[in-house]
Design goal:
By secondary structure, the protein is of the alpha+beta class. It is built from three helices and five strands, in the order E-H-H-E-E-E-H-E. It has a single domain, classed as 3-Layer(aba) Sandwich (Aminopeptidase), CATH 3.40.630.30. The longest helix is centred in the last third of the chain and has 13 residues.
C-alpha cells in the first residue's frame, strides 16, 4: 500500500463525505454544502490518499501562534491501524510549530487512541453543543 500525503485545501466535498462515512466519524456527510464550508473555512487541511482515493484527513483551525483546534481526524476504517492518523497529526504539528498547542474533542470511541499518539487528556474543557 502506497499512501501519499497532501497539504492542500483543494479537495471536493464529495470526497470528504466519502471519507467521513467510511471512517465512522460522526459528521454531516450527507450535507455537501456544509462540508464545502468546512473545507473553505479551515486553516489547515492535510489529506492521505491511496492513488485517487481520499482515505484520511486532518482539518484544523488555528492562529499559528498559540492554539490549534484539530476539528477532524478521520481515516477510512479499511486503513485504520496503519499509522495514517498519526502521520496526519505529525504533519499538522509540523505546520503549527512549537508555540501552538494542539487541542481536540475526541469521539467516545477514540479516547484511548489519542494518548498513544502524544496527546494528554484534559479535564478542564467546556463545550456549548451545536444545534445541528
Amino acid at each position: 500500500m502506497r499512501i501519499t500525503y497532501k497539504d492542500s485545501m483543494d479537495i471536493k466535498a464529495e470526497d470528504l463525505s466519502k471519507v467521513f462515512l467510511a471512517s465512522g466519524i460522526k459528521r454531516p456527510y450527507e450535507d455537501l454544502e456544509r462540508l464545502q464550508r468546512m473545507i473553505n473555512n479551515a486553516d489547515i487541511i492535510i489529506t492521505a490518499w491511496e492513488d485517487e482515493k481520499l482515505i484520511g484527513i486532518a482539518r484544523a483551525v488555528t492562529d499559528y501562534a498559540y492554539c490549534c483546534y484539530l476539528s477532524d481526524l478521520a481515516v477510512d476504517k479499511q486503513y485504520q491501524k496503519c499509522g495514517i492518523g498519526e502521520q496526519l497529526i505529525l504533519r499538522v504539528r509540523g505546520k503549527i510549530g512549537e508555540e501552538c498547542s494542539l487541542v481536540l474533542l475526541s469521539a467516545p470511541g477514540a479516547i484511548n487512541y489519542y494518548p498513544k499518539v502524544g496527546f494528554t487528556q484534559a479535564d478542564n474543557a467546556f463545550v456549548i453543543k451545536r444545534g445541528k
